[in-house]
User: Fold tRNA (Adenine22-N1)-methyltransferase from Spiroplasma chinense.
Amino acid sequence: MSFLTPRLFAIANMISDREVVADIGTDHAYLSIYLAKDKRASKIFATDINEKPLAVAKNNIMSFGVADKIELLLADGIEWIREKDLKISSCIMAGMGSGTILKILEDDCKNIDCYVISSNTDVEPIRKWAKSKKYFIEREEIILDNDIIYEIIKINKFAGQKIKTKEDLIFGPILYKTKHNQYFLTKWMEEEQKLTTLLNQIPKNEKKYKEFLKRKNIITKMLKKENSN
Assistant:
């Protein structure tokens, strides 16, 4: 399906065969359609907070002949999963900022086993949330889509890598320990440069200066280690 972006492909690849999936903020339902056509999901609940994209999604679903596998819902967040007492294997959230995602995650419940998340902003707050809940990171990917670097993480409530260190929070426990690709290095070289610029603009006696300096030193140490390999 050529209309899937690299980010949506990467998200789809984190879904195992025959899962029950919730696609939060489905928009035009392209990801849901792919999961249904590729038989990665046996049932998909695709939601949006607006009726207009759901109407477009309905037409797309009918065109691809997967209406029997995808149920469209006008809904905000994930509270409806508990209310309907559904069992969801993986709940997907993409195309939103970390603040919005964290707000949605306030309704986390036992009915959901995993979350597949691709935030438009910094992923570290999502990892902090997972750590606070004592959840695990099952998979992590970093990809380039339309000249933007995205991290995609799969949080599993029962198995995976624990988040133990500050490095795990910043870089990801899997991305940090596996072979780093060019997108990973580019992302953190750019972040290092941004922090250097900020440090040159902030008085050294301000609290933010110490916070930024500590973060920059962690990134610089990682990059030096990677470049020496």
